[in-house]
Specification:
With about 100 residues, this protein is mostly helical. About 75% of the residues lie in helices and about 0% in strands. The protein has one domain (about 15-100): Methane Monooxygenase Hydroxylase, Chain G, domain 1 (Up-down Bundle), CATH 1.20.58.1290. The radius of gyration is 14 Å and the shape is globular.
Length: about 100
């Protein structure tokens, strides 16, 4: 996950975002699913997610957790925690960079 691109904040309509997210998810690539997850988490920090967005957020978390659990031979719960730790750590780093540059 270290080489993952920064997920842009997307200001498109939900319909367009949804289509883009689904195209990425349907590739079957863990990196693409991770990009969707990061984008939704970033969007969640800016606003309340709609029902559809929350459902897609849960779906991407589940997909990524299953993939990580299978690759690393850990439980899905452990994988979920690793993913949460990763995104929480990335959020803290971003916050520190913003504070430092202020």
């Amino acid at each position: 996950m270290e080489g993952a691109k920064k997920a842009p904040i997307d200001h498109q309509t939900w319909n367009r975002r949804y289509r883009d997210y689904m195209e990425r998810i349907q590739t079957g690539e863990a990196l693409e699913v991770g990009i969707v997850l990061a984008s939704l988490l970033r969007l969640q920090a800016d606003k309340d997610l709609s029902f559809g967005e929350r459902k897609l957020l849960d779906y991407t978390k589940t997909l990524l957790s299953k993939e990580l659990a299978a690759c690393e031979g850990i439980t899905e719960l452990q994988a979920e925690q690793k993913i949460a730790d990763f995104f929480n750590g990335a959020q803290k780093i971003t916050h520190l960079k913003l504070v430092k540059n202020s």
